[in-house]
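Task: fold both queries, return tokens.
Query 1:
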Amino acid sequence: MSKDSRKFKVPDELANLYDFANSLDARHFVHRGTQHQQSDELAGPRELGSWMAQRGLMKEGAGKIAPAMFDAALRLRSDIRAYLACDAAERRKNERVADHLNKALASFPLAAAMQGGRLVLQPSRRDAVAGLSHVVAELYEGSITGTLDRLKMCAAEECRRVFFDRSKPATRRWCMSTLCGNRIKTRSYRERHRDSK
């Protein structure tokens, strides 16, 4: 679990998925006079290995991450982000997004195994990126329990950060209403008043 997933009280069972989706920071807004710097925690195979090791997703002696493995990891992240960008109700109907996600998921197969008296999903792969199958397992478990519907992408185009919606009705649109919500509402207010002149 990362500092961010703890700070924003993301449930443990979705923490790796949340962190993986947010390993790409596409925010490009100005806040308090400072331009937010975009970044990518998975800038290369080495960075992906470090990211996985920090979360206990990379086994010792797993070997190097080959370029094809790295490309599959980036495809998975991109398609998870596209899926989370859809409204929860739309996720079930958007065949294009589902098809892309299914293709990415195929690279990270899971197998059922008995562990500690209960059935769990484990990676079928045995290579350097096998640990990303745990992210896929969180996606699966979240879809079964319904918690995945609360994992959303901020509606602000200049943010696109994934957040966990803790509101009772699960209708939040922005990662932070005090930041992104305020910015959008202020912009809309100014546009309405400019148009009325």
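Query 1 returned. Query 2:
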Amino acid sequence: MQNQRVMIVEDEAEIRELIAYNLRKEGYEIDEADSGETALAILRRRAPDLVLLDLMLPDVNGLEVCRRLKRHPNLADTPIIMVTAKGEEADIVAGLELGADDYITKPFSPRVLLARVAAVLRRPRESEAESSEVIRIHGLEIHPGRYEVLRDGGSTELTVTEFKVLHALARQPGWVLTRYQIADMVHGGGYVVNDRSIDVQIAGLRKKLGPAGKYIQTVRGVGYRFQDE
């Protein structure tokens, strides 16, 4: 089996080398970039299995790199873990809203970083049958194979993570899912549900789905459900 490839986007050489050293010890293949533009150029040539992305970069910042990746047809499903010294909630929320899968703040333990990388890479891949099954509910058409949601005849733009949260809820209408269950279905087992990550995705979905957003209901003290028709 071919080793999984991780792209490290980090402008501080010592940190980049530390991350690369620990990942190589675990058998990962590594691509490195010290700027956003360099990273984007490499990514267009070869898609990795995961991107470790610093937010504070000298040219194109990490949030913009994340935004461009999630809009690229061949890179949109590439998992992203933000690695940043900025622990402010606003930066974390912004990255999650753009479709990042997780975050870790500097200084970090290499063991914790490796665990986060492994958890994100373990997330389940849908089968071909699941990917092609269109869900029609409350005036929405949810196309998993295309990561597309149609509403009132037009396409609704969602991040990859928002789409996966919607799909997890919509394929089990009426059932209540906890934040941990949603995270497991979207990211795979072992994902750390931190702060408001799932709540951020739900809030984004409700806003983007317009009137259909009201069908994503909060069940206090438990989690969320997509109302059955």
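Both queries returned. Flag for query 2: The chain has a mean pLDDT of 84.
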